[in-house]
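Below is how a single chain appears once it has passed through the pipeline. First comes the sequence as given, then the structure the pipeline wrote out for it. We keep one example in the README because the format questions we get most often are answered faster by looking than by reading.
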Amino acid sequence: MTEDGSSDEEFEDAATTLQTKLFDTDGYSQEVSKGLEVLQNAVKLVITNRYVEAEAILRDKAKDSLYHGVGYALIVFIQAALSFDRESIERTHTNIQQALELCNKHRRTTNMWGTLSGMWYGKRLDGYSVVELHAEVFYAECSLLEALLTFLQDESLMSFIRAGLKIRNCHSMFKQCHSWLEEVNTTSSQQSATSPAVIDKHFVSGVHLGVGVFNVVISLLPGRILRLLEFVGFSGDRILGMRLLTSGYHSNTCHSPLCSMSLLGYYCVIAPYTGFGAYEDLSIPSDILRVQLTEFPNSGVLLFFSGRLALLQGKVDEAIAKFLRSIEEMSQWKKIHVIAYWELMYCYCFLGNWRAAAYYADLLYNNSRWSKATFLYQKAAFLLMAKRGEKNNPPVVGNDVPSFDATDDEIIEMMKKVPTLKQRIAGRSLPIEKFAINKAERYLQGEAIPLCGLEMVFAWNGFAVLEKAQHLAKLHLATVWECVTSTVEAKAGNNGPTDDHCVISLMQGLCFKSVGRMEEATRCFEDVTASAARLQHDHYTPPAACWQLGLLLMEEGKYDLASKKLEAAKSQYKGYTFENRIHFRVHAALSAIEKQRSHK
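Resulting structure:
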């Protein structure tokens, strides 16, 4: 199984190979041609911020037309997923069920012998019509939407089990469809003379979208999860996934925009948060955005991704401008504003403008239902950072810079409210909420919780941005130094200061690493790992420091030592906050080492 990335040229070569081995048809019926035309127009309307019009051209025939029904289900799913609104989720469930019924209506029906034969030998491609093939791939796509919606709709353990089974079934359907494409490639388009199969580019791109997304997502998972998934039939090859998505992006079909959004989502959002972004080529999303923004210069979604790309390049001010413009352009779809609020919140964290960050945390708290405990804790933490840092870093003021303020008593009230907002999903609370609640309760007990805002930056892998903006990293290093000089560094006996010391040393090491002071960073991280046995609360700091030591060894080209240190970060520490996040990032680093070794 391959774990590493690939170049742009490899993607283009793969796309060409995959497409030239397949054949198309011009013999669409009027119903199919019209349905595809409306579906593609609706997707373009969504990209150009005209969501109301997109819904309007799909809604009337959503119960009767395969293409209208699938397109409408996709649009309402996106709205429900972003809003977390219970009523929207219920309506979306109904729309997806209608789309699935339409897909079933157009799928190939088989008798009992055909069903048994398919279970044993797999379904045969012979004799499928264009509509039947479209219905197969649309059914798989809508099944995936239904499974994902189940996670949002019901927080019970049984709900998660049902959703997992649906995703497995969906994965199997995409694999079946992909096997048909391989069958066509193998036979070089030589089909049965009596019942020729008709493969068209919309079906092909739909298969590439589904199989591509599954392969990319599964390949990101840490080894312990991946081994379990492979045991039950899942597998992940990131190079194959990227090739298929790139092929779909270049196909000029109804799935092309979704393939391009999947690629942008991976490079600009998923890879950076999971740690893979440090090893990816940003010229690929840059090329996609250059082409897409030339055609759709005012697209709110594309402007959002453009802002994310600027942020990953360390251009924080440019990113803020892109996110603000994204919000302005998406006036018809205010529910999607929350994703831009989130990015703006952390942009101002990077700038050290904690009051502006608190302003956007407050907007998220009031406008999103995802995790109010996290939003409220972030607001309180950013305000604490602002109050503690005003001596050396006065707040930025101006008509174009938002700000939020609160008294000490109001911050205490926020911290008191955080534990009351805890959610439970499948009987368990979100790890980030556990962290926020633990910190809030410790603050109320009189603990200092130093650098609480920078801790949240670390939680979302934000130091990867500061490494690209060293002038901002220096600003935060000054804040950390102030904290070092004002905090009693107890080495034993007093649990609170020992935990505080490890948090401060970890943040200091991350800042040193961001500005290129590697020896000082190493000493900070080693100090943290040496203090592991004395910690009472912040048990995430030693494995995080161990992971960072592995990265420092990687930068020196000491791959054997780096691998040992990274494996230690993965295996020597258990049951701490951010464990899954650190395992993802360790997995990314180990994959990068494997890639470097293979290129020697």
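The mean pLDDT is 85.

See the next section for the split statistics.
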